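CORE FACILITY INTAKE
Project code: CF-77B
Contact: R.S. (postdoc)
Sample description: multi-component assembly, three entities in total
Requested service: structural model of the whole complex
Turnaround: standard
Below are the sequence entries exactly as provided by the requester. Do not edit them.
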Amino acid sequence: MNGTTPTRWRWLLRNRKLTVGLAIVGFFVLVAIVGPLLIDDPDRITNDALVAPSATHWLGTTNTGQDVFTQLIASTRGSMTIGAVVGLLATVVSVVIGVAGGFVAGRTDEALSLFSNVFLVLPTLPLVILITDYVDAGGVLIVGLVIALTSWAGSARVLRAQTLSLRRRDYVDAARVSGEPAWRIIVFEILPNLLPIIAAQFVFAVIGGILTQAALAFLGLGGANSWGTMLYFALSGQALSLGAWWWFVPPGLCIAVLGAGLSLINFSIDELINPRLRLARHDRRARKRERWAAGEGGAA
Amino acid sequence: MRYLRRKILFYLVAVWAAVTLNFLIPRLIKGDPVAVMLAKTQGAAPVPPEARRALELQFGVSDDPLWVQYLGYLNNLLHGNLGLSVSFYPTPVTTVIRQALPWTIILVGVATIIAVGIGLALGMLAGWKRGTWLDNLIPATTFLAAMPYFWLALVLLFLLGQVLHLVPLNGGYDYSTEIGWNGPFLRSAIYHALLPALTIVVSSIAAWMLGMRNMMVSTMAEDYVTTAEAKGLRPRRIMVSYAARNAVLPSVAGFAITLGFVVSGSIATEIVFSYPGIGTSLVQAVSNADYALMQGIFLVISLSVLGANFIVDLLYALIDPRTRQAA
Amino acid sequence: MTNPSDVVLSVRDVTVEYAGTPPVRAVRGVSFDLARGEVLGIAGESGCGKSTLAYAVTRLLRPPGRLVGGSVTFTPPDGGDPIDVNALAGEELRLFRWHRIAMVFQGAMNALNPVLSVRRQLSDVFTAHEPGMGRRQREERCRQLLDLVGIAPNRLSSYPHELSGGMRQRVMIAMAMALRPDVVVMDEPTTALDVVVQRDILEEIDRLREMFGFAVVFITHDLSLLLEISDQLAIMYGGRIVETGRARDIHAAPHHPYTVGLLNSFPSLRGERQRLHGIPGNPPDLAHPPAHCAFTARCPYAFAQCHEIDPPLAPVRSGDGPGTLTACLQYDRTLRPAGPDEALVQGRFDLDRLGTSA
């Protein structure tokens, strides 16, 4: 495995999907951090209600004359924060439960995987709606916590399976026989090998967090200024029937573009983990020249 | 049938977990939910004392120990008693749900079946013909997958409904028709369901396609696919019976996760279309502080999702002979 | 060599490349002839290109693997024009497969489709090649096939995971017999099996060969096994054939140092006791193949020119009739007028000398 590491990295750097994904995500992170410092008060009401995009209002205004572009920048911070909070919390929970289960095995493992599997089949959004409504959650942290607590199960399952297979490898056995304590084996032998998978699960949790919070905010729950909140106000402000497309298109587009960027990063991680998914450029040309499956050319 | 026994056992546990969670959540939270609820509904129709009593029982505003409350709750549940809805007082929660549930189940069910079918087929083809135009489309589908359902719904509704007038702007059927098994009603119901269904299909298809494509790529490197090719089987046969039959297994096994997304997405989508389904009812219940209805809906959604997953797990046993092994 | 009219499969200068940076030449200019009804054994360590060669000959290479040169010609033993296998495409190629050349793959666990019953996998062959055949007839033929390899026909409804390793391999062999092929390529067919089952399978193959008279290309890393069952033998190293000839000749007098090394690595099946050791070192990196003989780095008998010249396959003694061919400078009379190293001639793989040549 060590022998392939440098080529892996070189491959990673040349990967276009990864570059595009990182560029998109980096852009949004930058906007989330710097953006709010450069704009006016996003809630400032003016008399220019429902103005189409123009030089003064780049993305037009809402029904109360608020500038959509300014709101978009302010909301970026809210949505990105939620994504980061959910990503971190859900990853921590899933690593703890998944790795513990896979490493300890036996009864504990069975109990933990039953626990994760039950959480996996319970529908997330209704559960989040129920909890946030009861705790009357407004803050980013609380909403993030609730979403994280309902969305870690899938990752935990993936991590458990991977830990289980790592546990059977020789070098882990060797460490065990030489009397290394469990936590050392986990931290130094198992976690480093799980890193790409954990990264993928983190990215996945970020997407999930942003989407779930957007839905929540869109339904008028789980406050925090976010893209979902903008959509909520757009719908309740009759943006649709008033034809104010500039009000509801940008926030959703941001979610979709950011989500696509994050997915592209995940693609490259997948390809890193499973080289079969890679397709070298010259193969593609070679493939056109000679098709391996009989009669394939005709069927295309 | 060891597999079947295990699965039944698992779903029993899952059902118990959903039921218990539903019981615990309102009780774990400090404060008096009934007071909150009544405060929120102040100004609307006054709630009679007996209703208040019923609500207090249901939400644990009671001096009884927790386990007595739990038994009472389970007993009510077994008798199909989910309490009374405040916003539709005095309609039982079960009645409200019974009216809304079929809309959602048919909409989400049909849309999911279509999305699974098309998604798996496209994923199969993309994996089979790696590096062709279909396969190159894959990164683009992430954009589809990352779109919030309800936003896609908004955009489609704006374009097809508001601008082009191709589809109705809201509702589940034409109110001039009579609900039942009659032509005009069914026609209008299908007409109204087209766009919501399209939304769900478009947003959920990418996940199926991507998963299937990646598994196809992995499966095609397996020896049995090479054997099939060496045997001189027709390419279509190799693709379907050898590669896809095996590649589809993880997608089916991962159905639960994907269905979770669809259910969440469809709740918000229903709001956009004012669709008379369970998602709309849930959001109404939330904004009216109708806790009994909220919890009833949560329970019903959970049980439906569990039921769907159970069916898929049974299906899995049919397509993977290895699960059918005797203990 | 064998009588040219008897050759069913003729392979000339086959070269296979795996795309990459740099590309890997897994098979480099390999040629052999397979005579009707004969067993050709191909031996070598893992990574020597023997499986790639099998895939190249049967047109089963997949990207990034690619045939970059050479020809494969199949001559139907029942008369008929020679077929250029590389030129086949589409339906022609599909119908050629299994009917002319069938395959038995390594590790029968994965070679059988886990989700289809044995019946489906056997009858698939008939549906693909004899579309006119009725359902009942197919069923009958499938039963006969299982019967042929000594498996009860009620196993038709079984799935691969319900069969033992040996049974799966028998099913695989039965499947290969379905269309009475002229050539069967067997890629490590006995590797995953325990010794007793291995023996049964070999006997089974032998019996079937006598019955149907097909030729076999038998690929394995187990040279001692090949010595027993093969008529002809080819030893591969670093993507090339380094020694080829009649199996009993090579057994009696191995020439290439690598062959000598391999023979010393395996216990003889007849149980003769001898000192066992592997060959130290690793196979060459075929992404950067050396310009000289690929074995030099591991060869105890390497001398100065071995670091410069890449020897071609040549008769060990010229003008001797059909003898062994080997690619080794030890037998080059112009470089070594005195003949090959004494220890090599005696069939010893002299480990002690390894350090000095480096």
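Facility notes:
- Residues 152 and 199 of chain B are 6 Å apart (CA to CA).
- Chain B has two domains: 2-78, 93-326.
Invoice: internal transfer
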